[in-house]
C-alpha cells in the first residue's frame, strides 16, 4: 500500500524534526496563555517607548498524494524578525518610522522534490536560497500633514504595489503577483532592493503611488553584506498604482488598485534568437530585449461584517490579475479569486476558512517554441496553456501566538500542460509568533 513518507534527505529530515519539536514545545504554553498574561508582557513597555517587534517561525509541510512523482512529506520554513521603530517617540523625529527585518528560509521545494512542476509553487514560503537576509531596512516619512508618504531604503516592491494578504499556501494566491512570475527583476520577500516609493493622498479615500527600485542580480546572492552594495545594477524598476479604499456606511471595507510597471533591465526573448529568427529552428541563443513591462489590478471587498471583533470579521472577497509582456515572460497572465471568512463559528472569532481559484497562463510564444522544437525532433517540454489551481483551508488561531492551518490543493494541468496528471496536495501551515 502506498503511504506518505517523510523526505529522507538528512538536511530536510533534521529541519523537519527541529521544526516539529519547536512547535510541540511552544504550542501548549502559548495556546494556553491568558489574555491577562499577554497584556502584562514585558514588551508592552517597549511598544509604549516606540519599539515593536515580531519574531515568528512559519512551517509549510505538504505531500502530493496523487498525480506527482513522490508522496514524500516536504518541509519548507522561514524564521523572521521584524522590528519597527517609532522615531517620533524615540527621538522626536516627527512623522518618521524605521523598519528593519531579518529572514532565514530552510527546507525544500515540493514543486521540484515531488515532481509537481507547477507554474506557481505550492509552498509560497520556499525560495531564494537558505541564507540570512536583510529583508527590510527602510525609513517612512510622513510629509505635508499626512498628504504625502515617502519610503526609502532597502525595499521589496511587493510591499508597496498590489499588496494583498498571503493566507494561502500556493504562490498563485499570495500577495503581489508580479514578484511571483517576473521574479528575475521584481524581487518580493525575502529579497530587498535599493529603492524609493512615494504616495500622494488625493483626498478622501483615493491615492496615487509610484516607485523606483534598482534591478541588481547581486541581490539574489547569499552574501549578507555584499548584496547591500549598489554595484552591479542592470536597470531600474518603476511601478505605479492608483488606489481607492472606500468604507460603506455599514462599515464594510473596500480596497481597489490598478497599476503597472516598466523595467529598463535587458531580458531574454522567449522565442526569437539573436538574429531575430525562431530559435527553435536556428538553435541560436535567444535574443536580448531592452526592457519589460506589465500591469495589474486587485479588488478586495468585505461582504459581511461578522461579529465585529476585528476589521476582518465576516466574509471578504479578493480578485486580482496581472499581465506581462509576451516577448520576455514565461507566464504572461494570471487571474485569481478568493473568499475568506473570519470568525466562522461562535467562540472562534479569529479562525479563518479560505477558498481560492487561480488561472495561470503559459506564454503562447513559449508553447509555440516547444511545439516547433518537438516537430524538428529536438528534446523539449510539451506545449502548454492554462494551469488551474484550487485551494481550501481552515485556520485555527490559538491566542496570539499559534496558528495551525490544514490545507488542500488541486492543480489541473501542472505547468499548463494538459497531458500531465492532476496533482492533489495535502498539508498544513503552522505559525508560531513570539
From TrEMBL:
<dbReference type="InterPro" id="IPR052932">
    <property type="entry name" value="OprB_Porin"/>
</dbReference>
<comment type="similarity">
    <text>Belongs to the OprB family.</text>
</comment>
<feature type="signal peptide">
    <location>
        <begin position="1"/>
        <end position="32"/>
    </location>
</feature>
<dbReference type="InterPro" id="IPR038673">
    <property type="entry name" value="OprB_sf"/>
</dbReference>
<dbReference type="Pfam" id="PF04966">
    <property type="entry name" value="OprB"/>
</dbReference>
<dbReference type="GO" id="GO:0008643">
    <property type="term" value="P:carbohydrate transport"/>
</dbReference>
<dbReference type="GO" id="GO:0015288">
    <property type="term" value="F:porin activity"/>
</dbReference>
<protein>
    <submittedName>
        <fullName>Uncharacterized protein</fullName>
    </submittedName>
</protein>
<dbReference type="InterPro" id="IPR007049">
    <property type="entry name" value="Carb-sel_porin_OprB"/>
</dbReference>
<keyword id="KW-0732">Signal</keyword>
<dbReference type="GO" id="GO:0016020">
    <property type="term" value="C:membrane"/>
</dbReference>
Amino acid at each position: 500500500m502506498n503511504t506518505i513518507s517523510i523526505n529522507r534527505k538528512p538536511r530536510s529530515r533534521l529541519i523537519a524534526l527541529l521544526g516539529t519539536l519547536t512547535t510541540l514545545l511552544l504550542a501548549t504554553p502559548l495556546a494556553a496563555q491568558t489574555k491577562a498574561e499577554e497584556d502584562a508582557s514585558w514588551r508592552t513597555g517597549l511598544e509604549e517607548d516606540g519599539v515593536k517587534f515580531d519574531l515568528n517561525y512559519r512551517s509549510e509541510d505538504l505531500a502530493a498524494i496523487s498525480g506527482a512523482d513522490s508522496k514524500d512529506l516536504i518541509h519548507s520554513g522561514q524564521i523572521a524578525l521584524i522590528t519597527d521603530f517609532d522615531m517620533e517617540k524615540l527621538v522626536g523625529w516627527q512623522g518618521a518610522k524605521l523598519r528593519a527585518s531579518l529572514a532565514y528560509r530552510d527546507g525544500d521545494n515540493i514543486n521540484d522534490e515531488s515532481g509537481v512542476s507547477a507554474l506557481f509553487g505550492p509552498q509560497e514560503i520556499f525560495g531564494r536560497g537558505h541564507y540570512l537576509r536583510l529583508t527590510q531596512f527602510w525609513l517612512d516619512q510622513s510629509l505635508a500633514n499626512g498628504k504625502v508618504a515617502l519610503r526609502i531604503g532597502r525595499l521589496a516592491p511587493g510591499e508597496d504595489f498590489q499588496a494583498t494578504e498571503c493566507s494561502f499556501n500556493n504562490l498563485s494566491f499570495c500577495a503581489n503577483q508580479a514578484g511571483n512570475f517576473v521574479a528575475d527583476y521584481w524581487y518580493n520577500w525575502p529579497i530587498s532592493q535599493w529603492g524609493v516609493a512615494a504616495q500622494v493622498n488625493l483626498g478622501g479615500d483615493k491615492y496615487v503611488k509610484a516607485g523606483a527600485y534598482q534591478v541588481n542580480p547581486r541581490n539574489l546572492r547569499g552574501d549578507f553584506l555584499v548584496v547591500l552594495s549598489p554595484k552591479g545594477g542592470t536597470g531600474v524598476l518603476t511601478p505605479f498604482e492608483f488606489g481607492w479604499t472606500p468604507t460603506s456606511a455599514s462599515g464594510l471595507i473596500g480596497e481597489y488598485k490598478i497599476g503597472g510597471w516598466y523595467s529598463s533591465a535587458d531580458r531574454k526573448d522567449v522565442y526569437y534568437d539573436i538574429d531575430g529568427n525562431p530559435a527553435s529552428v536556428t538553435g541560436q541563443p535567444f535574443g536580448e530585449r531592452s526592457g519589460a513591462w506589465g500591469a495589474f489590478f486587485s479588488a478586495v471587498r468585505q461582504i459581511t461584517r461578522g461579529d465585529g471583533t476585528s476589521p476582518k470579521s465576516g466574509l471578504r472577497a479578493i480578485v486580482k490579475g496581472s499581465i506581462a509582456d509576451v516577448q520576455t515572460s514565461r507566464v504572461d497572465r494570471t487571474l485569481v479569486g478568493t473568499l475568506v471568512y473570519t470568525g466562522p463559528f461562535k467562540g472562534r472569532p479569529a479562525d479563518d476558512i479560505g477558498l481560492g481559484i487561480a488561472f495561470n497562463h503559459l506564454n503562447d510564444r513559449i508553447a509555440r517554441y516547444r511545439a516547433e522544437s518537438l516537430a524538428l525532433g529536438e528534446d523539449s517540454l510539451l506545449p502548454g496553456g492554462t494551469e488551474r489551481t484550487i485551494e481550501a483551508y481552515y485556520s485555527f488561531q490559538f491566542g496570539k501566538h499559534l496558528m495551525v492551518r490544514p490545507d488542500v490543493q488541486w492543480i489541473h494541468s501542472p505547468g499548463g500542460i494538459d497531458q500531465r496528471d492532476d496533482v492533489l496536495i495535502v498539508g498544513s501551515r503552522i505559525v508560531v509568533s513570539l
